[in-house]
Specification:
The chain has no helices and 18 strands. With 190 residues, the chain is mainly β.
Length: 190
């Protein structure tokens, strides 16, 4: 078992990096910080409480390279609300944002690479192309944001808020958690 230190708020969202080497945690709506730990687990389970993250390994931790060290704690502004995060498939970048009108693309050291202002994010997802970020927002939709050419477009529009979503590995199917239902959607991203 390994307890990850340095987290001072509740947790609203957790995400493993694609190679399972890092774990990132976002706080509740009133939290402007994000925490990134070097964990490198293989066999684990995880528990959380208000102020502690614990990774429980199913085998001896002696053979694991799990430092549990806090790699970075980031905040772009004390007014931010970083409540959602998604990893870029390269495992070297992630996007994070919240409902206060912004989301950011960052590197593993928490350095800001790009930002998109005016977007109140509920949930984020990075497509396998490494360029496109999908974001559900407070306008009951999912939009695609391309950080390379700085374009965006509507992907899905619902009648109720899209609270969260997940995308299939091939990037063509999505499962939406809409406020009043759960529904599937077939993407046409071409």
């Amino acid at each position: 078992m390994k307890t990850l230190e340095g987290h001072a708020y509740g947790v609203s969202y957790l995400a493993w990096s694609p190679d399972d080497a890092y774990l990132v945690a976002c706080g509740p709506d009133d939290c402007s910080e994000l925490w990134l730990w070097n964990v490198q687990p293989t066999d684990f389970s995880m528990t959380t409480n208000c102020h502690r993250l614990t990774i429980c390994y199913t085998h001896s931790t002696r053979s694991r390279n799990c430092t549990g060290e806090l790699r970075t704690k980031m905040s772009q502004s004390h007014e931010d609300s970083l409540t959602s995060v998604a990893w870029n498939p390269d495992g070297k970048r992630f996007v994070t944002g919240g409902q206060r009108g912004q989301f950011y693309q960052c590197d593993l050291d928490g350095n800001l690479l790009d930002s998109w202002e005016g977007v109140r994010v509920q949930c984020l997802w990075c497509l396998s192309d490494g360029r496109t970020v999908l974001a559900s927002d407070t306008h009951q939709r999912i939009r695609g944001y391309n950080f390379e050419d700085l374009t965006d477009r509507n992907i899905v529009q619902e009648d109720h808020p899209i609270m969260s979503f997940t995308v299939s590995k091939n990037g063509r199917l999505a499962l939406l958690n809409v406020a009043t239902q759960v529904s599937s959607f077939h993407f046409n991203l071409s």
